[in-house]
Design brief:
This protein is an alpha+beta fold. It has four helices and ten strands; from the N terminus they run βββαβαββββαβαβ. It is globular. Pfam families: DUF6886 (PF21820).
């Protein structure tokens, strides 16, 4: 599930939204109210149950070393890996997720040094009814994104953030506690 040209997407487990109104998310680092959406490249970051903690890593052309690619992504495993904990597997299997197509010209990129999302400061109406995303695991497979299961995200995350791969951690506060050292 990816946006078409001129669109961005908002993913939700709620199929009844008719208008998106800017708000300040409880976990936001920004104080301004936004409507949040993602573009083609970041859409896979949201092929998960909303509260599912996930560590995402992908190759940065010209930056990621061969050693980090093999160590983090894995030999022969493509360009990208998404990691969740076993405790979230059932939710990945049964969650019904919907994609709302929104007009891209209403949004601007946000994030430094690279944009990780798009935001609007005015209410936005979807371009049509929400579309079921379908099987979240199948979405990963169809996109060639490795989906890895671990008991605990933290050891993987600690390696990722000190490597040369690009990364994103979403809902990490919901991950299992760090294992004892």
């Amino acid at each position: 599930m990816r946006p078409e040209p001129g669109q961005v997407l908002h993913f939700s487990e709620d199929p009844t939204i008719t208008r998106f109104v800017p708000h300040v998310a409880a976990t936001a680092q920004q104080t301004e109210a936004y409507v949040w959406a993602v573009d083609h490249d970041r859409a896979p970051d949201y092929w998960f149950p909303r509260q599912c903690p996930r560590a995402l890593a992908w190759v940065r052309p010209g930056v990621t070393t061969d050693e980090d690619r093999e160590r983090i992504i894995g030999p022969g495993c493509g360009e990208r890996v998404h990691v969740i904990e076993y405790a979230w597997w059932e939710a990945m299997s049964i969650t019904r997720l919907y994609a709302y197509r929104l007009p891209a010209d209403t949004f601007r990129p946000i994030g430094e040094p690279e944009s990780h999302a798009h935001v609007a400061t005015e209410p936005v109406e979807p371009l049509g009814p929400p579309e079921p995303v379908g099987d979240l695991i199948a979405c990963h497979a169809a996109a060639g994104i490795q989906l890895r299961l671990l008991d605990n995200l933290w050891p993987f995350w600690d390696r990722v953030i000190t490597s040369t791969v690009a990364f994103s951690g979403i809902r990490l506060r919901n991950a299992a506690p760090r294992p004892p050292v």
